[in-house]
Design goal:
The chain is of the alpha/beta class. The protein has 10 helices and 14 strands.
Length: 334
Amino acid sequence: MIRLGIIGTSWITAMFIDAAMKTNAYDLTTVYSRSQASGEKFLASLDIDTDNVDVVTTLSDLYQSIDVVYIASPNALHFEQAKVAIQSGVHVIVEKPSFSNPTEFEKIESLLAKHPDVRLFEAARHVHQPNFKAIQETVAKMAQLQGATLVYQKYSSRYDAYLAGQEPNVLTREFSAGALYDLGVYPIYAALAVYGTPNAVQYLPRLLRNGADGSGVANLFYDNFNVTVIFGKTSNSYLPSEFYGLKDTISVSNIAELEKVTYYDGEGNSNHLGDVPEENPMIRESQDFANIINDPTTNHAEYSQWFQLAKQVNQTLFDLRQSAGIEFPADIKE
């Protein structure tokens, strides 16, 4: 069993723990929290036996007792937490976006080279789903590619707090957050996983009073087509996402959740692709990561592919921010 440690006590952490336990590959042993009380409160909220799970309040105590850490803290904290984990010989599963900028990513990549037995995974759960793989396989068969329109616009549970004058972490540049890094990362990941790295990018954001982006439209430019990405945290959208061939089209109900994927052949005929998604969308990525940890040699090519995709997404997100003049404090740190 892989000894699992946790940083972060939000809903997404609880979802990952549930998924990891359902693979029967992990054993939750340790939860890191800034206070003992908040860690114990989080454990009490989980629908699993936590009698043998410890709560710790220092990273040194966390990393000495686990094989892999799942990091779901605010984005700006990912780099330091992952760095210490790698130095401690602990594998890292870090929520997307993994790091604030390419400089941080390159430092982590260099550190991994010095610790060749350690693996780092970005938890882009949707690209591990069977329905996403069905999209990739179908796009590869299209006679002519004409790009895509990808949409992920969801009202943030923290936007009301922002409107009331507060500064929630997920809507501030201080924590390397905003619409692009919180929601836009899903369709950006999808675009790069299907089409590869774009030749050029452009981001047109709607900025909040604190300089963070609340919503926006990103354009990814390829040789023979463009991809338009629409996302935001200040309103809801129920538009599907679409991948275009010549006459044929793939329609996706939600590019992050992938509940329904439909292929239209251009003659009015439709065909559902993939399967009914699992109740917990993080099960597939949890199993994929466990496979790598348990057998890194056999699965090295797949791991390398995921790592390179994560690196390309990191660069693309940074380039999009640069095009819009959005700077994070993490960008100017030594």
